[in-house]
Write a structure and sequence with these properties.
about 15% strand, about 350 residues, single chain, globular, alpha/beta, 12 helices, five-stranded mixed beta sheet
C-alpha cells in the first residue's frame, strides 16, 4: 500500500474516532405515553439532533427508566441526563416552584404560564434548590387551568365539594381541602384506576391528561370554568451532564428550548380547539359553574393558602414573599403585553 493511500485511510479512521468521541447520547425519563404534555421534549430532541447533525441525540423513555415520582432522584444520581417531573409529587424537594401551584393565581393562558414559570425558574432560590439534586431547570411544561371530571350528578355548588374525594395534587389539593374536599395525590398514571375503583369521586386534570389517561372515558360531566389553578411540571437536566457538553452541543440545546416551547403551545392550541367536539363525542356534559360559587371558592382557598405558603417558606429561610411578588408582577406584565 502506498503512503498516500495509507495516509488517506489513517485520516478517515482518525476522523471516525473524532466523530465518535464528539457524539453525545442522553437518556430522557418521562411517563405515560407521547401526548401534548411531552411534545416539547420530543421537539427538543428533534431540534438538537438536527442542529448537531445527529451528534447529540436523546432517547426518550416513557416509564422505562424510572417511576414518575422518582425522576428527580434519578437525575440527582445521574441515572439519566434529562427528566420531567411535577412539583406536587415531592413538594419538600422543590419548595420554590410550588409558588406556581398556588390556587387562583389568575393565569389565563399557556403563554402567561410560560412567562411566570420562566421567571421563577430563573430566580436564584430555584436554581440553588434544584442544584441540591444536581438538577438544572431547563423548561416548563405549561398546562391550562385544571378542571374536574366526575360521574353522577354534577358538583356545581360549593356544598357539593364537602367530602368529595378528588385526585388533586399540590396547591389544587389544598384548595379543595379548604372547601371540605378530600384530596388524594395518586399519580396521573394511577388516576383512571382510582376513578374506576371508586377511590376518588372526581379527577382534576388539564384537558390533555383527561384524554391521555382515560378519565374522560368514565366521566358524565366536566367543569368548564372552575379554573382553580394548575400544576407545575419542569423538565430538568443533570448538572454534570450539562456541564460536560461541548460548547456547540450546549448551544444547540439552549437555543432549542424556545423553539420547543413554541411547538408545544401551537400543538396544545389545536387540542383545545377540538375539546368541545371530544366532550360531545364521549357524551360528557359541559358544566358551567356559577361565578358566585367560584368567588366563594376563591375567598376560602386563595388568600389563606397563599398566606400560609409564604409564611412556611419564610420560616424555612426561603424568600416566599419575594417569589409570590415575582409571579404577580410577571403575570401583570404578561397580561399588559398581550
Amino acid at each position: 500500500m502506498n503512503k498516500i493511500a495509507f495516509g488517506a485511510i489513517a485520516g478517515a479512521v482518525s476522523c471516525t474516532f473524532a466523530l465518535e468521541a464528539a457524539a453525545t447520547e442522553w437518556n430522557v425519563s418521562v411517563w405515560g405515553k407521547r401526548r401534548a404534555f411531552t411534545e416539547h421534549v420530543e421537539k427538543l430532541a428533534e431540534l438538537v439532533s438536527e442542529k448537531t447533525n445527529g451528534e447529540f441525540t436523546m432517547n426518550i423513555s416513557y416509564g422505562g427508566l424510572s417511576k414518575n415520582r422518582e425522576n428527580l432522584d434519578g437525575i440527582s444520581i445521574g441515572a439519566f441526563e434529562m427528566a420531567q417531573f411535577c412539583a406536587g409529587y415531592h413538594r419538600d424537594k422543590n419548595r420554590v416552584i410550588t409558588v406556581l401551584e398556588l390556587p387562583f393565581l389568575g393565569v389565563e393562558n399557556l403563554e402567561q404560564e410560560v412567562a411566570v414559570s420562566s421567571a421563577v425558574y430563573a430566580h436564584p432560590a430555584a436554581t440553588e434548590e434544584m442544584a441540591q439534586w444536581n438538577a438544572q431547570l431547563l423548561m416548563t411544561s405549561p398546562m391550562p387551568q385544571y378542571n374536574l371530571v366526575g360521574t353522577g350528578e354534577p358538583r356545581d355548588a360549593l356544598t357539593d365539594f364537602e367530602g368529595m374525594r378528588v385526585r388533586a395534587t399540590g396547591g389544587l389539593g389544598q384548595a379543595f381541602e379548604a372547601v371540605g374536599g378530600v384530596p388524594t395525590s395518586v399519580t396521573a398514571t394511577e388516576a383512571y384506576q382510582a376513578m374506576e375503583s371508586g377511590v376518588v369521586d372526581t379527577v382534576a386534570f388539564a384537558q390533555h391528561a383527561h384524554l391521555s389517561f382515560g378519565t374522560i372515558n368514565q366521566a358524565d360531566w366536566w367543569t368548564a370554568n372552575l379554573n382553580p389553578g394548575t400544576v407545575n411540571c419542569p423538565v430538568v437536566v443533570n448538572i454534570d451532564a450539562y456541564e460536560s457538553l461541548s460548547d456547540a452541543h450546549k448551544a444547540a440545546l439552549d437555543s432549542s428550548v424556545p423553539e420547543a416551547l413554541d411547538h408545544y403551545l401551537a400543538n396544545y392550541a389545536e387540542l383545545l380547539k377540538r375539546w368541545d367536539a371530544v366532550l360531545e363525542e364521549k357524551g360528557v356534559a359541559k358544566v358551567e359553574i356559577d361565578e358566585a360559587v367560584i368567588a366563594e371558592f376563591r375567598a376560602k382557598a386563595a388568600d389563606p393558602i397563599r398566606d400560609k405558603w409564604i409564611a412556611d417558606m419564610e420560616g424555612q429561610g426561603l424568600p416566599g414573599q419575594e417569589l409570590y411578588d415575582l409571579v404577580v408582577k410577571t403575570l401583570a406584565d404578561a397580561k399588559g403585553g398581550s
